Amino acid sequence: MQAPADAPPRSGLGEVARLFLRLGTTAFGGPAAHIALMEDEVVTRRGWLTRERFLDLLGAANLIPGPNSTELAIHIGHARAGWPGLLVAGFCFIAPAALLVTALAWAYVRFGALPQLAGLLYGVKPVVIAVVLQALWRLFRAAIRGWETALVAAAAAAANALGAGELAVLGAAAAGTAVVAAARATPKSDAGGGAAALFAAALPGGGAAAGAVGLWPLFAFFAKVGSVLFGSGYVLLAFLRSGLVEERHWLTEAQLLDAVAVGQVTPGPVFTTATFVGYVLAGGAGAAAATAGIFLPAFVFVALSAPFVPRLRSSRVAAALLDGVNAASLALMAVVTVHLAMAALVDPLSVAVAAVSAVALFGFGANSAWLVAAGAAIGLVAAR
Questions:
Q1: Rounded mean pLDDT of the chain?
Q2: How many degrees, rounded to 5, is the angle at CA 51 between CA 50 and CA 55?
Q3: What global pTM score does this model have?
Q4: Is 82 left (phi over 0), alpha (psi -120 to 50) or beta?
Q5: How far apart are alpha carbons 22 and 240 in whole angstroms?
């Protein structure tokens, strides 16, 4: 019998480390793809979590600021191996990408250009589309609990497609479902305080230090970004442009776009853009300071919120709030997938790679990691 969600087994630390080191090395495609790969590994293949529990952790990650897929990895580590698992999962997911980005930043500073990664991404992106579609199919079946959550998902997708921000969509979904649940019945427990704690954890932190580019200013600036940022990599770009280019004049527009491109095209968290910026500004120590700054809040917020996630289900209002956030989160993921598909499926070969990957996943339960590797090989060959 599986251990209860609030008393995770402590013996799985090594397997947590191995899984997230591999995902941190091979998980291309951004947060939507990372979430899909984690669902495949920890729900379908390993059975560490039920799909419902996975959805609750995803919903909790969406309620706090910071990099959602990294926070989901940290939540999974805590659920599997307790507090040590929380630290190990997050570190192992972040470290490979941070090291790779540091190497690319060294090449950028040394040679003034980025290595060509277009071929690799050309083959990987269609596979990512198929992986995300499979995860969406499985997660929607668990998340849609009736006509109310179906309506929330449809409204969230429509609102986001029409330009509504991610935070506004999630907030409206949470508030709407919680109000409906409260109108139906009075909660029988005070576990709704867990939801309040989650929102309290999302309050902005203090301002970043200004002045000359040094390790402390770098750390403080990125710690602030990690403490208040909701949304996608495009929101991260807006924060960095305002803070680094316009206010502090630490980077040029071209350098910032190169930094964001590196974060997008490397595996693991997109927020390793900070690693690149830190190296460009202050070498290896700067890369370490910026990486620590932008990811440290995620560990803190997950540590504060994780104990409350299981308790949310004991309150009707809090459980309804979580159901609404889950449905809206998947709807946002679906909208992102449409945009990713439009960018990834650019010719007959890329369409064929996506179609074959979908058949392999849906029809034969293929391992997504092997498909990503195969897609990368196809892309490299096609680029020659």
A1: 79
A2: 120
A3: 0.66
A4: left
A5: 29
